[in-house]
Amino acid sequence: MPSFFDDRIFREASHLNGFSGNPIERWSEARGDIEPEAMLAADNAALYLFADDRALLRVDGDGLKPRFRPDEASGLGLDRGSLILLGIGPDGPLLAGLVPASEARPDDVKAIDLRSLAIQDVLDPADLAALAQARSYLHWHAANRFCGRCGEPLLLKGGGVARACVRCDMRLFPRVDPVVIMLAIDGDRCLLGRQARFAPGMYSALAGFLEPGETIEEAVRREVKEEAGITIGRVAYHSSQAWPFPHSLMIGCHAEALSTDLAPDADELEDCRWFDREEVKLMLSGEHPEGLKAPFRMAIAHMLVRAFVERS
Amino acid sequence: MPSFFDDRIFREASHLNGFSGNPIERWSEARGDIEPEAMLAADNAALYLFADDRALLRVDGDGLKPRFRPDEASGLGLDRGSLILLGIGPDGPLLAGLVPASEARPDDVKAIDLRSLAIQDVLDPADLAALAQARSYLHWHAANRFCGRCGEPLLLKGGGVARACVRCDMRLFPRVDPVVIMLAIDGDRCLLGRQARFAPGMYSALAGFLEPGETIEEAVRREVKEEAGITIGRVAYHSSQAWPFPHSLMIGCHAEALSTDLAPDADELEDCRWFDREEVKLMLSGEHPEGLKAPFRMAIAHMLVRAFVERS
Description:
The structure is a homodimer.
Chain A: H1 7-10, H2 36-39, E1 46-51, E2 54-60, E3 63-65, H3 70-75, E4 79-89, E5 92-98, E6 109-112, H4 114-120, H5 125-143, E7 155-156, E8 163-164, E9 171-172, E10 177-186, E11 189-194, E12 206-209, H6 216-228, E13 232-243, E14 248-257, E15 271-276, H7 277-285, H8 300-311
Parallel strand pairs in A: 1-5, 10-14
Antiparallel strand pairs in A: 1-2, 2-3, 2-6, 4-5, 7-8, 8-9, 10-11, 10-12, 11-15, 13-14
Helix pairs in contact in A: 7-8
């Protein structure tokens, strides 16, 4: 009798996407009872620091160091009101906090965007994943200082796992926005589009926010119809990716095109067209004659395209 | 050469979950430019109405009628400030709005919880799915009347697709909370637990909110570890379900147990244990000797359990 677990189905593609592999034990229930400030005193406590949405890194001979000791964080102007506890890392408690965006910093401390860090692949994946967690939490807390129901200032609850209203009792938990990102396929061709903001020559899979009341598959069909005018039949989940800009969950799928005449939404896409497998291979290898490019390796869209090229 | 689309992978389980099959064309971009009030004048416009979180239904000879004409909605005390546009249904524009919870209503108009409607399977699935969409939007708008960043009252933007702050320019979009729900499997056994609030004798799959910075598979492993003490290896996506309580996306998976000694979190689960396939079959068919039950058919947990029983 075949196993319920079929190797073909169970290859975990998500682990190959950027920002995966976070080794932090989150203790999701227990950490709500812990004051982050108290954890700063623990042996080996370390902090990830952000100035607005950019991560602080210390440049040293061996590369970029993303973790700071509590005394270093204080020296950089840590805002103690922003402190959250990410959980317990391999070497001790890991916290995150904000420093002033404007403060003068030592020459060897740089503020760098997470997207650049992921594309350049210059950090340990465990640190990159922890930075993604930290950025999503810090951004969400900064955007949720007041109660949406009654307007009262919200308190940050222990560990940063929630915010709470003392007036109306609302408890608010960090938000994760599910986004469907899908590669529509018509036989030997796949559908790629580009937004005006993309790097020159880059084409990617279509994507959009899942709306309340939809399944993943329904959202995939709606988005491809709205953005490209294409009717989708079957939808196959491929992998997922934490996307800390500011706090999305990318849900990657392959999608079977049942129609082929494109009617792109000009407000969303600058261009959108069918690419055959051979052309996509050249885009992946950087050898496309017109310089067209596939998405960066760290992005789930890259993996969706690669799976299409390799699996058929 | 085999097709990229393999029938075994591509059976769409999500379509069998309750609240799926919403036929509304959402026009997700365009409907933000439409004033819901203006759509009330359209021929064949109809409304789904809620009193707090319960749907209004008119009882008549043929069953329960969930859609109301604009004049009927006015007669029931429709709050025009709550109006949102769901999109275009098969018979015309479909809107949603709130009526006062306390207002006296005609004897033939009842306010009923969506969970009961789904379990009793008394509505057309298209109406049930539209009610799920409506409930999620209405609940979210009611909980987001003030700007989380600056505390200013938020304006509802056309169609109800967003809210916006006139003071700090924040635009806020309806929230969908991804939840992982997973059936851990050890050979011929699966792991089911029960929370104290469950109906007597009912056991279900474990579940929890996905946190910022996690992939779906990472969230599945964390939740099963935290709730039951079990280590998980491979994770396989099965299906998803819109869950309007108030606005979740249930992401259903099967998960391979790599350990079997249970250490349940007593704060979360009243009980948690391994059930062999034969026992689960009796729970599904309602013939369990001790009266233990599987989740209701409309719930994704039911389908996860059924797939385990049927596929191995």
